Amino acid sequence: MTAVAELRTDDVSTLMRDIGRRARAASRVLALAPREAKDAALLAAARRLRETEAAVLAANAADVAAALAAGVATAFLDRLTLTPARLASVAEGLEVVAGLADPVGETTAAWTRPNGLAIERVRTPLGVIGVIYESRPNVTADAGALCLKAGNAAILRGGTDSFRSSAAIADCIAYGLREAGLPQDAVQLVPTRDRAAVGEMLAGLDGNVDVIVPRGGKGLVARVQTEARVPVFAHLDGNNHVFVAKGADLEMARSIVLNAKMRRTGVCGAAETLLVDRAVADTHLVPLVEALIEAGCEIRGDAETRRVFPEARAATEEDWGAEFLNAIIAVRVVDGIDGALAHIETYGSHHTDAVVTEDAAIAERFLREVDSAIVLHNASTQFADGGEFGFGAEIGIATGRLHARGPVGVEQLTSFNYRVRGQGQTRP
């Protein structure tokens, strides 16, 4: 029995508003908590996660069995499933976040005005962060850890299908908070699967939610962006591209394309479209597509791709903008860097895009002109991950242009204020 037992209630509104009030009270304590206490909570949570591995995996097995019985898609099952290795990575992520510098109180700029006023810009917590996510139980640990490290309280509304797994992980975080002498309400998992809880969070819980972070499918994120009455960090989808340009090393391109598409097809950093420069199509298109087919990937190609692979399905207009989250990729031959940029601008989702080339001018132009949160040169799109950026974990990938963009880590979960020190100055 976990500390986060499922609660069945007809009064979801009252339940959620109480959670919001308790989160606000906890956020005031966390905003002033020393780094040592926050780190101690994270390390104790990681230790507890390892100690209770069997119980967490058993809870996850029950979630997976229920999902299988419901006939969910393979990509969904991959996101839902915890293995001993994945659980170990979750625990390691908690420890990495504990080892990060504490952003709260950091002075990011300081200057003195001619009148003697000394001004500093200092990082402060956002307050209370609501996280709404689907299927991935590891987000419970990632989001809870990052919010805690940045001095924020978190209200976590996990997927109904991963409720048991998320509850088991949340129990470990609660244990860590208690061990460190911090309020357990600092990280709360919504204890009901009732979908009305999402609507309550989007309404702001009487002003007690400062920002919402959705992490899930396009339908969830679109609903959040439409209904939320508080700011949102979000992306709608990850329609990511790999552009194999003139000057690309074939073996490097093959390795990157296979990894970007097939390492894990259900993650938001997976490549969904392969663009091949016409300048290298004669030498690169066939080997790249053959490698994808051998790896079990379905090809949906343009006319030129289907001329050399007639068995490929004809790509539709919808395919160019699709986030497949499966072993499917759209393939198009384009006219150089201009053609690649035009395609990505038309169909891309501003998430993650990569170019493979040894031509420095092409690479720099791609990095400069592709308007995505993450742009890579000679590297797989699957590096679109806060852990791979050294953030320890991420609460999501933001593709907007305000406040946070790319992997949302501890720094992106802070705001700032200006602290002004004078010696009696008055304004004339």
Brief overview:
The chain has 428 residues and is α/β, with parallel strands linked by helices. The protein has helices at residues 12-31, 35-51, 53-69, 74-80, 84-99, 138-149, 163-179, 196-202, 218-227, 250-262, 281-294, 303-308, 317-320, 336-347, 360-369; strands at residues 107-112, 118-125, 128-133, 153-157, 187-189, 211-215, 240-244, 271-277, 298-301, 313-314, 328-334, 352-356, 374-377, 397-398, 406-407, 414-421. The protein is built from 15 helices and 16 strands.
Commentary on this structure:
- It is built from 15 helices and 16 strands.
- With 428 residues, it is an alpha/beta fold.
- Strands 10-9-11-8-7-12-13 form a 7-stranded parallel β-sheet, with helices on both faces.
- α1 packs across α8 and α5 (84-99) runs parallel beside α6.
- It folds into 2 domains: 12-233 and 408-420, Aldehyde Dehydrogenase, Chain A, domain 1; 240-383, Aldehyde Dehydrogenase, Chain A, domain 2, CATH 3.40.309.10.
- The chain has helices spanning 12-31, 35-51, 53-69, 74-80, 84-99, 138-149, 163-179, 196-202, 218-227, 250-262, 281-294, 303-308, 317-320, 336-347, 360-369, and strands at residues 107-112, 118-125, 128-133, 153-157, 187-189, 211-215, 240-244, 271-277, 298-301, 313-314, 328-334, 352-356, 374-377, 397-398, 406-407, 414-421.
Average of the residue pLDDT scores: 93
The SS-based structural class is alpha/beta
| CATH architecture identity of the largest domain | 3-Layer(aba) Sandwich
Which geometry do the CA atoms define?
globular
Kindly report the CATH topology of the largest domain: Aldehyde Dehydrogenase, Chain A, domain 1
Helix content: 40-55%
Strand content: 15-25%
**Number of E-type strands:** 16
Termini separation: 66 Å
How many structural domains are formed by the residues? 2
Assign the CATH class of the largest domain.
Alpha Beta
**Spatial extent as radius of gyration:** 23 Å
Question: Major sheet: size, sense and barrel closure?
Answer: 7 strands, parallel
Quaternary status: single chain
CATH superfamily of the largest domain: Aldehyde Dehydrogenase, Chain A, domain 1
Would you identify the regions where 5 or more consecutive residues have pLDDT less than 50? none
* Number of helices, counting only DSSP H or I runs of 4 residues or more: 15
Strand order in the sheet with the most strands: 10-9-11-8-7-12-13
